């Protein structure tokens, strides 16, 4: 007797349940908003952390590097869990691990700070790798737009956490520890919301359920260009998120204004993180969009280093527009260049695995360079090298191509 076939999961952009679709998008946005506060909520209070725990710049660079390194290490592993867990359950697991990490780093001193950052990075990494394949599965005709929504939600969460970090620290009886611990609340709520809306959802990993169904992309040059674009733009972004407040404080801004400058940079990312994928989907290819965003990135970041400090708000805005767009495009390439959900899942694992491993070196190198040279000029040169490489790989990945898999050999 043949076994009963497993029914295919309907794409969520079909009109089978408009109300369920809207609720799922809302919960997805809320989940994504909680993937950045653990990272960007640290930068504005980093000076307080450094003084309280007497950390060197190299140790601070390691602290900023840890979660990004976890993203890289967990990315190749997460897709291989799909034969055993649905994508929805993997997202739930990742969020639970993140909450544990937030608690450890906020409440248990210096050891907890580093261990919790490591644990939280693993949790966030799982969620970030699984979501692109899930979005490609559920929204096959609107995947690029939904990746724009995804990246916009990340930017919104980063903006809120950067803006609230110092005010939370300065509350009566508070400290940097409670500023970091605050994000336990929305992160826990996001777990409950995600579980409730997905508890009766069929295992949408059906199309990527077999580990052997995930294609091998290690010999595909287009996959490598997307991966290296992901890596270099992520290196730039995490160096900015972690070190910009410290750089601006050294240039004469107060900690509160430095936090607000980072928050402004995060806020304006929302504009291009949503519009860049939309423009890219309606053009012949994405090279023009990448070129424009790269110019904004160059002008903004170099202005933050060298322009008069009174222009910090202008250059934070310009840099944010550039960084938000190139980040959104690196995510959009995961679905734009993938013919199906299996390739999207495999490309997500490869691009984020290798890419974030590369990015993990950035914040550490910034701290080391500043400590060795006692100057931010060497760090600015480092940024220029990164931006040059990112622009080159972005223009290559922006061509109107799709990843082609080799034909299976005939037995």
From TrEMBL:
Transmembrane feature ranges: 21-39, 59-78, 90-108, 114-135, 147-168, 180-197, 222-244, 256-276, 288-307, 313-336, 343-366, 378-401
PANTHER family cross-referenced by the UniProt entry: 2-NITROIMIDAZOLE TRANSPORTER, PTHR23523
Gene3D superfamilies, sorted: MFS general substrate transporter like domains
Keyword Ligase among record annotations: no
Keywords: Membrane, Transmembrane, Transmembrane helix
Lineage: Bacteria, Pseudomonadati, Pseudomonadota, Betaproteobacteria, Burkholderiales
Pfam families: MFS_1
Protein name, per record: MFS transporter
Domain Major facilitator superfamily (MFS) profile: 21-402
InterPro entries assigned to the protein according to its UniProt record, in alphabetical order: MFS, MFS_Cyanate_Porter, MFS_dom, MFS_trans_sf
Magnesium among keywords: no
